[in-house]
């Protein structure tokens, strides 16, 4: 899986490319850092989702350079069940808090 970040912090989108070379544009829902895992994470959702459609959120850990930029090799799949549970907990907190999710 490859990624390309488009735009600046105001327009945060990532193009993901699967193993077959198919590209799909994603919006960045939010990013956060976990001190427990000493990693940064990004949560994404497809940009082409309509208002009435369910949204499938994807999560990756990532490495940014000293300037904070993320390149195509910087997204990493989350493989540990404990790590997934932590990310799911952060997402649930985000979704349950109207101030964070913009509900």
Written description of the protein model:
The structure is a single chain. Helix content is 19%, strand content 36%. It is built from two helices and six strands; from the N terminus they run E-E-E-E-E-E-H-H. The protein has a six-stranded antiparallel β-sheet, with no helix packed on it. The longest helix has 16 residues, at 81-96. It is globular, with a radius of gyration of 14 Å.
* Major β-sheet strand ordering: 1-2-3-4-5-6
Question: What are the low-pLDDT stretches, counting only 5+ consecutive residues below 50?
Answer: 1-10
What is the gyration radius calculated from CA atoms?
14 Å
Distance between the termini: 32 Å
- Give me the oligomer status: single chain
The SSE string, one letter per element, is: EEEEEEHH
How would you characterize the largest beta sheet?
6 strands, antiparallel
The total of helices stands at 2
The percent range for strand residues is 35-45%
Output the structural class.
alpha+beta
Q: Based on Cα principal axes, name the global outline.
A: globular
Count of beta strands: 6
Summarize model confidence as the mean pLDDT: 81
Helix content: 10-25%
Protein name: UPF0473 protein JEM47_08225
Family: Belongs to the UPF0473 family.
Pfam families: DUF1292
Organism: Lactobacillus kitasatonis
């Amino acid at each position: 899986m490859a990624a390309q970040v488009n735009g600046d912090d105001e327009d945060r989108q990532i193009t993901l490319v699967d193993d077959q070379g198919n590209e799909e544009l994603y919006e960045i829902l939010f990013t956060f850092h976990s001190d427990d895992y000493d990693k940064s994470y990004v949560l994404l959702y497809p940009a082409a989702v309509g208002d009435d459609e369910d949204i499938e959120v994807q999560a990756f850990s990532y490495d940014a350079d000293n300037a904070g930029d993320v390149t195509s090799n910087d997204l990493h799949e989350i493989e540990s069940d404990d790590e997934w549970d932590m990310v799911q907990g952060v997402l649930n907190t985000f979704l349950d808090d109207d101030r964070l999710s913009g509900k």
